[in-house]
């Protein structure tokens, strides 16, 4: 499988003046109570004085939720765990990136049609580019879900050399074969060395903050450790990576950047990234103080 950074992506061009009228956005996932997407997007809408709203839906029936988006005229939606792959079959079309990744995290209304794209990879790589070059780097990707797919797409597009590591061997082997890269079971993590380790699994996410996807003693094999988890601000994985002398990258930057990419698609306006980052960090710090 080959990828190009120039792949066609969805390019809806709504007039910004249309967004002075009320419009609605939603988050589809299960569970969604922990998500800061509603807070982040509401802050962006308010900052730009747009008459939009963003709702969190804890979805039990995905087909029903997508039909509600259609019937009630929602402008778009975010899609999170566990629906990033399942939602693809319910849409009218996908852009090239979503097809190549095999997962969707963003829905966009174009007329009467619902289109799917993926901004996870863009968020991850906007954050990664601030701390490292990707081209030629050896990168271990932990996980085999939708975010792992986005990471692999981005790594290959940027000229990196990814390796898939997953607890469930069958799922990991299938994913690695699809993207044309090596696979190792999680039990072999101690044998691997590389420039970057990216955790795309939910291991260590609230409320299970005492968990880490890999043993601390293997972390010195990597120069940079990145975690897509943004809640808590610093996962056990990142704490132990710092102790091992690694540079670390928090999931907050990736989360904010993928959300900013969604916002641009929904509104055709530049997202207020600094404000979005500010409200996310403030809320996470508040929650940590309360624990």
TrEMBL record:
Q: What is the organism of origin for this protein?
A: Syntrophus gentianae
Which PANTHER family does this UniProt record tie to the protein?
Answer: BIFUNCTIONAL 3-DEHYDROQUINATE DEHYDRATASE_SHIKIMATE DEHYDROGENASE, CHLOROPLASTIC, SHIKIMATE DEHYDROGENASE
Q: What is its EC number?
A: 1.1.1.25
Quote the record's binding site residues for shikimate: 35-37, 80, 105, 120, 230, 258
User: Which keywords appear in this protein's UniProt record, sorted alphabetically?
Assistant: Amino-acid biosynthesis, Aromatic amino acid biosynthesis, NADP, Oxidoreductase
Q: What does the record note on quaternary structure?
A: Homodimer.
Q: Active-site residues?
A: 84 (proton acceptor)
Q: Tell me the ranges covered by the SDH C-terminal domain, including all copies.
A: 251-281
Catalysis: reaction(s): shikimate + NADP(+) = 3-dehydroshikimate + NADPH + H(+)
State the name under which the record lists this protein: Shikimate dehydrogenase (NADP(+))
């Amino acid at each position: 499988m080959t990828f190009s950074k120039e792949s066609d992506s969805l390019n809806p061009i709504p007039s910004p003046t249309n967004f002075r009228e009320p419009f609605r956005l939603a988050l589809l996932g299960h569970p969604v109570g922990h998500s800061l997407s509603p807070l982040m997007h509401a802050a962006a809408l308010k900052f730009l004085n747009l008459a939009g709203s963003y709702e969190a839906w804890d979805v039990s029936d995905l087909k029903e939720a997508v039909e509600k988006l259609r019937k009630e005229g929602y402008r778009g939606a975010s899609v999170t765990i566990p629906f990033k792959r399942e939602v693809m079959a319910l849409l009218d079309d996908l852009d090239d990136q979503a097809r190549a990744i095999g997962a969707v995290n963003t829905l966009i209304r174009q007329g009467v049609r619902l289109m799917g794209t993926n901004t996870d990879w863009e968020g991850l790589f906007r954050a990664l580019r601030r701390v490292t070059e990707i081209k030629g780097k050896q990168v271990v990707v932990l996980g085999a879900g939708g975010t792992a797919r986005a990471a692999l797409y981005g790594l290959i597009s940027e000229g990196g050399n990814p390796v898939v590591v997953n607890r469930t061997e069958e799922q990991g082997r299938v994913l690695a074969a699809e993207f044309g890269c090596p696979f190792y079971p999680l039990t072999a993590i101690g044998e691997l060395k590389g420039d970057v380790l990216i955790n795309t699994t939910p291991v260590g996410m609230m409320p299970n903050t005492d968990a880490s996807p890999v043993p601390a003693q293997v972390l010195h094999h990597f120069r940079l450790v990145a975690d897509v988890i943004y809640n808590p601000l610093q996962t056990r994985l990142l704490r132990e990576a710092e102790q091992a002398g690694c540079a670390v990258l928090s999931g907050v930057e990736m989360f904010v950047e993928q959300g900013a990419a969604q916002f641009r698609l929904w509104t055709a306006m530049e997202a207020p990234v600094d404000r979005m980052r500010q409200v996310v960090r403030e809320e996470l710090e508040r929650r940590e103080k309360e624990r």
